[in-house]
Amino acid sequence: MIYFDNSATTKPYPEVIESFAKVAGEYFGNPSSLHGLGASSERLLQKARKQIADLLNAMPSEIVFTSGGTEGNNLAIKGAVHAAARNGNHIITTEMEHASVLETSRALEQEGFEVTYLPVTKDGSIVLSDLIQAIREDTILVSIMHVNNEIGSIQPIEEIGRYLADFPKIMFHVDHVQGIGKVPLDFNQSHIDLCTMSGHKFHGLKGTGILYVRSHVKLRPLFTGGNQESKLRSGTENVAGIVAMAKALRMTLNKQKQASDIAGIRDYLMNELKKIDGVKINSPESGAPHIVNFSIPGIKSEVFIHALEESGIFASTTSACSSKNKAISETVLAMFHDLSRAESVIRISTSYENNLEEAKAVIQAVIEKMAKLQKVMR
């Protein structure tokens, strides 16, 4: 098996699974309970919070545990604009955000908020002047992802944050789900107020996530009842999953610091795909080191994905959250305005666990499957 669908989810590290099993079995007390078992779980929870805060150069009080990226984005966006509604009702985001941002923005439009969706260039980036022109007196939130989940384009977050720093009423939210552990991001230098991360994207477990909330930022919670997580996220904390996530984050950031072939694998894939007639590269040259997106116009995405799977190769089409809808790639359509290209996208996403030999096998499989499918379709 060659697993090249790491932007959908990563395989948990064995050490992460061991950590989860140990904590789940030995520290099963509810961290909100007053007895000793509960206190032991609470201590472990706060230790994990401190470890994660240190890794992210944040304060422990700025770390809110969630169930993952979708909840984190919903809490950040809905929570921020509902808390700041008295200051305005205008939101700015982009045309190529994850569904959990786009659908949340559309839901807020139904409540009366106004949303500006910034266009993107053929490199998948916004133009800063478009953002500057979009800012209004009543703008209260800017939400822009760091690394695009489909094509790997990297937005100029630090540049955007420096500009927004002159607008204290505007909160800056960054969806960092695809960037964490792959593309460095300094929350302080980028003046980020809210930042979403998901544990299973960096070899943690599904159902775990982090929302960074800068200390001055006010949020209205999505849930009521338990008042856990500083009253921002009610619900008994997943202590074992959180401890395992802290380990996964530490291990992944260590791998990021070490010399790695991940960028070399991407360069190889990009260069070899460019040599194949009929392949169009959608990822920008300056994109993230772990995502390569390309199209084969004339061959539907799902057909090619299943053809690769016959050879034991697992890749994907759009984001995992949208792929089962068999919808075209809105991201690629927004970039190139080419329907044929948008309905034939393939996403290869790697991790620190992959190697160059796997990449070579994938290129050979792409050549063979294309030839076979194009012959059948003639």
Structure description:
The protein is of the alpha/beta class and 378 residues long. Helices cover 40% and strands 14% of the residues. The chain has 13 helices and 12 strands. The protein has helices at 14-26, 36-55, 69-83, 99-110, 128-134, 157-164, 239-257, 262-274, 301-309, 320-323, 330-336, 339-342, 356-377; strands at 2-3, 63-66, 90-94, 114-118, 139-145, 171-175, 194-198, 209-213, 280-281, 291-295, 313-314, 345-349. It has a 7-stranded mixed beta sheet with strand order 2-8-7-6-5-3-4, sandwiched between helices. The longest helix has 22 residues, at 356-377. The protein is globular and about 70 Å long. 48% of the residues are buried.
Shape: globular
End-to-end separation? 31 Å
Count of helical stretches: 13
Biggest sheet, spatial arrangement of strands = 2-8-7-6-5-3-4
- Count of β-strands: 12
Largest sheet: 7 strands, mixed
Question: If you average the pLDDT, what whole number results?
Answer: 94
Strand content: 5-15%
| SSE pattern, N- to C-terminal | EHHEHEHEHEHEEEHHEEHEHHHEH
